[in-house]
Amino acid sequence: MDAVVWIVLGVVLAVAEIFTTTLFLILFGVGAFAAAGAAALGAPVFVQALVFAVVSALSLVVARPVIRRHRRSALESGEQPFGVEAIEGSTALVLERVDAEHGLVKIDGELWSARSYDTAQSFDPGHRVRVIKVRGATALVWQDDVSSAGELPEARG
User: Fold this and answer.
1) Measuring CA to CA, which residue among 35, 40, 39 is closest to residue 55?
2) DSSP code for 82
3) For the chain, which end, N or C, has fewer CB atoms within 10 Å of the first or last residue's CB respectively?
4) For every residue of 106-155, which 3-state class applies, written as one string?
5) What is the H or E stretch that residue 4 is in?
6) How far apart are CA 107 and CA 138, in angstroms?
7) pLDDT tens for residues 55-89?
8) Burial class (CB in 10 A: 0-12, 13-18, 19+), 151
9) HSE (side-chain half, CA atoms, 13 Å) at 73
10) With a threshold of 0.90, does the pTM exceed it?
11) Which residues are listed as membrane-spanning (predicted)?
12) CB of 10 within 8 A of CB of 29?
């Protein structure tokens, strides 16, 4: 019966991790599953609790720094960016009018929904824009021509 309680606790912690995405609760879930293994082997409750505490602590000490190191963005770590990070900073072609509410652009052959980074700007089809940021599946774009755009948004105070 103790093993079932530990398994339920491990599953609850794993599901809670899905909603927090901190990679913290899952490490305690690992400890709960280890304690379930100890319970299945017939260990007394205090040993199960000790296994839970030791495995959770070891997970935090060993796994957490590794996870944090790999979670850093490619730009922070000096690696070649990929995915959304590779799209940020690239140019796009406006296919449907882009304004503060909606739009459609083509980035490296892929269609992306887009919005203007500056709500006062809008771009007509055929215009070249620069992807400043990606939020979800929407690219926030800015005028690509630096000479006519004035300053880029990073330079604003």
Assistant:
1) 35
2) -
3) C
4) EECCEEEEEEECCCCCCECCCCEEEEEEEECCEEEEEECCHHHHCCCHHH
5) helix 2-20
6) 11
7) 999 998 988 777 776 665 544 555 555 566 667 88
8) exposed
9) 8
10) no
11) 7-35, 41-63
12) yes
**Tens digit of each residue's pLDDT (9 = 90 or more) over 17-38:** 888 877 788 899 999 999 999 9
Structure tokens at 131: 């992807």
Q: Residue with structure tokens 């406006």?
A: 94
Distance CA 149, CA 19 (A): 40
Q: Tell me which residue of 130, 125, 128 sits closest to 152, measured CA to CA.
A: 130
And the tokens for 122? Answer: 């809008």
Phi–psi pair at 23, nearest 5 degrees? 55, 40
**H/E element holding 104?**
strand 104-107
CB neighbours of residue 66 within 10 Å: 9
Structural domains in the chain plus CATH codes: 3-76 (no CATH), 90-143 (2.40.50.140)
